[in-house]
Design a protein that fits this description.
Blueprint: E1 2-10, E2 13-20, E3 29-38, H1 40-48, E4 64-65, E5 70-77, E6 90-93, E7 97-99, E8 102-104, E9 119-122, H2 124-128, E10 132-134, H3 140-158, E11 160-162, E12 169-171, E13 178-182, H4 187-198, E14 205-210, H5 213-222, E15 230-235, H6 242-245, E16 253-258, H7 263-271, E17 273-281, H8 296-301, E18 305-307, H9 314-325, E19 335-340, H10 344-349, E20 358-362, E21 365-366, E22 370-371, H11 375-379, H12 383-393, H13 401-410, E23 412-413
Parallel strand pairs: 13-14, 13-16, 14-15, 16-17, 17-18, 19-20
Antiparallel strand pairs: 1-2, 1-4, 3-5, 3-9, 3-20, 5-6, 6-10, 7-8, 11-12, 19-22, 21-23
Helix pairs in contact: 3-4, 3-9, 12-13
Length: about 425
């Protein structure tokens, strides 16, 4: 069949094109990609090409399909997998997959399996590994958001603190403690706060900081404390005494997430750490010679822990899906733009320069990338966006199931019949 996809041929060589997709084999699945959320990791992969640790060396001859935050619907199953899968099933995917010593991921490794495509072939090794996860939520976009949420759940679960004997590690956030999410008013910072408030081991206080007033204002409008957690969202631009401004107190913060690869933000985290604080450097840098100053006196005497996490495992993904399906996490706060597959390549190339939060792609639609807060203006000349604006207005101008249903019914198809 003819499909369209965004494929990577080399460093910064990203192409949106149509090509022939081969027939599936007996142990494979053909699926239609419904949504894919664009990730900053894809931008970094686009910059590095085969220099990225997960991207093959031969992409110039065998380009890979980009995208790993996808939700898809099964169209056809091979005879060897009919027992467990059937047409119409909806699934999310585990992005980080382990095959022995090898790590693979859709969007990095495969020529027929990635999120930026109209249709895909799910390889047998993915099916056999249990890396397709059924989704029973009420909107496709929520399954796409499960992948970034799973990365955040992994980060929160990977935090650790010391038992009274100072030897045993107690995994997870300190229950009833204090948590700071620095440079945290972007989509992943908001998602981290949502996830932290939903987990069983949750802090009593979460502080999100940022220096961009628009991002701070958006976060303040969208995010509210829940489950007994006190939530504070603050602009720290120009603040000299950050610990004093945040009211860190003598014990400072128990858990700190660093959401931007900026040395100054890491040093802020260092200044906010107290006894037995765990700092997670969550934001992945593109430079391999990335350094920041850390007070190692505190590492020794105050038992300060410094960790980093990248991606989530299958258990994190299952927990993300469970919390989303149950309505414990509102993933709508992560999304600021929607668009069709036609804009995915250029949007990926420009991600650092596009303000807002997550960019959600509907992979069988032809749409310009459009911010939700631009619906009203575009609606003056386009009834499609006027209707989307009216629908989202019923949900505090957040993307929602009703908006998705309208889009799927009325958007221009990316492929001609």
């Amino acid at each position: 069949m003819k499909i369209k996809a965004v494929r990577l041929y080399g460093k910064e060589d990203l192409r949106f094109e149509e090509f022939e997709l081969r027939d599936i084999q007996d142990d494979e699945i053909l699926a239609q990609v419904m949504t894919d959320s664009l990730c900053m990791s894809s931008y970094k992969a686009m910059l590095q090409g085969s220099g990225h640790r997960c991207i093959p060396d031969d992409i110039g001859r065998n380009p890979i399909i980009m995208g790993h935050e996808l939700c898809a619907r099964i169209l056809r199953v091979g005879c060897k997998v009919k027992k467990d899968y059937k047409p119409g099933d909806i699934f999310a995917v585990q992005a980080k997959m382990f095959f022995g010593d090898e790590i693979k991921s859709p969007g990095y490794c495969y020529t027929t399996y990635g999120g930026n495509a109209t249709n895909i072939i799910v390889p047998s090794e993915v099916i056999d590994g249990g890396y397709l996860l059924p989704f029973d939520g009420d909107a496709y976009f929520k399954a796409s958001m499960a992948e970034p949420i799973s990365c955040l759940i992994s980060a929160l679960r990977s935090s650790f603190h010391l038992a009274p004997n100072n030897k045993d590690h107690m995994m997870g956030l300190r229950p009833g403690g204090s948590m700071a999410i620095l440079a945290g008013c972007g989509p992943m910072g908001l998602g981290a706060a949502e996830a932290a408030m939903a987990l069983e081991n949750r802090p009593a206080r979460i502080v999100l900081t940022d220096i961009d007033e628009k991002r701070v204002a958006r976060a303040q409008a969208l995010l509210k404390g829940k489950n007994g957690v006190k939530l504070e969202i603050l602009n720290t631009n120009g603040i000299g005494d950050l610990p004093g401004f945040l009211g860190a107190g003598r014990n400072q913060f128990d858990d700190i997430l660093v959401m931007a690869p900026v040395p100054g933000v890491i040093e802020q985290a260092d200044s906010l750490s107290g006894i037995d604080t765990c700092i997670n450097f969550f934001a992945g840098p593109t430079r391999k010679d990335f350094y920041a100053s850390i007070n190692f006196y505190d590492v020794h005497y105050n038992y300060k822990h410094i960790i980093g996490t990248s991606g989530g495992d299958i258990d994190d993904m299952r927990e993300a899906l469970r919390l989303i399906e149950a309505g414990e996490i509102d993933v709508s706060v992560l999304i600021s733009h929607i668009g069709g597959l036609n804009c995915a390549a250029e949007t990926t190339k420009s991600l650092p320069r596009i303000p807002g939060a997550k960019k959600l792609i509907y992979c069988n639609a032809d749409l310009p990338l459009t911010a939700i807060d631009e619906f009203a203006e575009k609606g003056k000349s386009d009834p499609f966006f006027a209707d989307l604006r009216d629908i989202c207005a019923q949900s505090n101008m957040l993307w929602c199931r009703e908006a998705e249903e309208y889009l799927l019914e009325h958007a221009k198809p990316i492929l001609e019949d």
